[in-house]
Amino acid sequence: MPDIRAIRGLRYDPGHVGSLSNVIAPPYDVIDATQQSALYDKHPANVVRLILNRDEPGDSKGSNRYTRAARFLTDWRREGILRQESDPAVYVYHQIFTEAGETYTRRGFLCGCVLERFGEGKIYPHELTMSGPKADRLLLTRGCRANLSPIFGLYPESNTGFLARDQKVHGLEAPVTPQQLLENAIAGQPPMEAADHLGVIHRLWVVREQAVVSRLEALLGPKPLFIADGHHRYETACNYRDELAKEGKLTPSHPANAVLMMFISMNDPGLIVLPTHRLFRGVPEMTDKELAARLGECFTTKVVGEGSDLAENIWEQIAAENEQGTMAFYTVPDQRWTVARITDTGRRRMAQAAPEQSEDWRNLGVSILHTLIIDTLLESKGHPKPGYVRLIDDFVGGLEGRAGGEGGREEGETFQFGALVMPATVDDIRRVSEHGERMPAKSTYFYPKLLSGLVINPLE
Fold first, then answer.
1. Is 428 helix (H, G, I), strand (E, B) or coil?
2. What residue numbers bound the domain in which 357 lies?
3. Consecutive sets of 10 residues in the chain, 460 residues long: mean pLDDT of each?
4. CB neighbourhood size of 224 (10 A)
């Protein structure tokens, strides 16, 4: 695994801000205009003013949302609203949440991860990135000189390997996994706690003991690391580091050599991946019969109902089948649902459509949807960016032209075609990443999101 570093993080002082719940926020890229305003109103020091500052009338190159974010960060540090850790630390982070009627706890830890360019080491991406978000985040990083939100990283573990390596290094029996080591270190300590707008409970503990940090480094060993979320911010951190190097400002110990990272084991029982469904515009308007004709021998098709209100029930059937090559489509003109299952002919056609990709990549539901169905069989390559929705209610809202949803749809915004598709799994991420490939955008949705505002990593 890439090197890790304990960091002197910035944290909110509860004596200044009261409850942490008032000043935290989800990642910038899931905040719409309505939630941005709500977070602004929640507390004058809410972290949204750093991660997603508003555009204001009269903004210019020298005075804009990036310079305002930088000014807020400087002021909050000077006023003691944000205080820097006295000693380097690792931060244990738990998230307690409910999904589909079950309660989970996802456990991990925050620290610095020494940067490597993708393809040059053991850090692997799994999704494509776009230039616009990276340019935006680079302007913010230049202004604030800090990692304001953590990257989400996954590491594989082998219980036997961890135990043997730790015994060899330290000469005594020790916790089997990195997370167990840290859980022992925080036993009996009260956490800092915040609740987000979705009801997720976030708990944080600070581990400063150098002996624990050193053992953590030894336990992790030469494992790969897979980026689950935060690809744009990771590449931005590399770009910022390289800028400093060109300017002659980068020393071996400079904080910008590392990025704030959340490390979570691929074996963690609280690690779940949720689907991101698609709403399309710019594709042919079709009835169920026209869709079946276009899919041809590449899929078996079956009409399973009529009306957008059946979405939840149909998704439950698709999820229970748990096959990447099975998906459900809603054709708006006749309001009918079609379940499609890929055939051997379809897999051969998929191989012809994406010959440069591995079989693991071609077997993904999102790859089949975008490459074989949308681009090839529907002849709609280059269509407008689809609407990405996690919740079935938002999916139905998009089909009915209702405003709202995670993407902040406008009232009356319409789509011609909807697709319910299985998410890629954690194992899919590992296999595709190790091929050096990247999945289509929004192939995974790791729930819940990591909070911004629990720990900030200064880069100066």
1. helix
2. 276-422
3. 90 96 96 96 98 95 96 98 97 96 97 94 87 96 98 79 43 69 96 96 97 90 87 96 97 96 95 94 94 98 96 96 97 96 98 97 97 97 90 90 57 81 92 90 91 97
4. 16
Where do runs of H (alpha helix) occur along 356-413? Answer: 359-362, 365-367, 392-400
Question: Torsions phi, psi of 454, nearest 5?
Answer: -75, -45
Kindly report the backbone phi and psi dihedral angles of residue 40, in degrees, each rounded to the nearest multiple of 5, phi listed first: -60, -40
Q: State the pTM of this model.
A: 0.88
> Distance (Å, rounded) from C-alpha 20 to C-alpha 337?
45
CB 8 within 8 A of CB 458: yes
Nearest CA-CA partner of 428 in 418, 439, 419, 420: 439
CA 144, CA 235: separation in Å to the nearest integer? Answer: 17
Rounded distance, CA 109 to CA 194, Å? 16
Residue with tokens 């019969």: 289
> For residues 451 and 46, what is the distance between their CA atoms, to the nearest angstrom?
12
Q: Are 258 and 113 in contact (CB under 8 A)?
A: yes
Residues 225 and 287 occupy one common structural domain: no
CA–CA separation, 354 and 348 (whole Å): 10
**3 state SS of 353:** helix
The helix-helix angle for 131-144 and 231-246 (nearest 10°) equals 60
* Residue 413: both structure tokens together: 């915004």
Name the CA dihedral angle for 254, 258, 262, 263, rounded to a multiple of 10 degrees.
Answer: -120
Residue 435 lies in a domain: no
Same domain, 221 and 294: no
Nearest to 240 by CA among 131, 124, 148, 134: 134
- Calpha distance 261→263 (Å, rounded): 6
Given a contact cutoff of 8 angstroms between Cβ atoms, the answer to whether 222 and 238 are in contact is: no
Instruction: Go through the chain and tell me how many residues it has.
Output: 460
Pair 46, 147 in one domain: yes
Distances (CA, A) of 405 to 95, 249, 320, 332, 388: 23, 43, 25, 19, 9
Residues 285 and 264 in one domain: no
**Residue 264 and residue 382 share a domain:** no
Domain count, the chain: 2
Please report whether residue 189 resides in a domain: yes
Retrieve residue 14's tokens: 């509860």
Residue 149 in contact with residue 230, Cβ under 8 Å?
yes
Residues with Cβ < 8 Å from 235, sequence gap 6 or more? Answer: 118, 129, 134
Is residue 200 assigned to a domain?
yes
Whether 291 maps to a domain, the answer reads yes
| Same domain as 47, residue 81 | yes
226 and 333 together in one domain: no
Closest CA to 386 of 368, 370, 410: 370
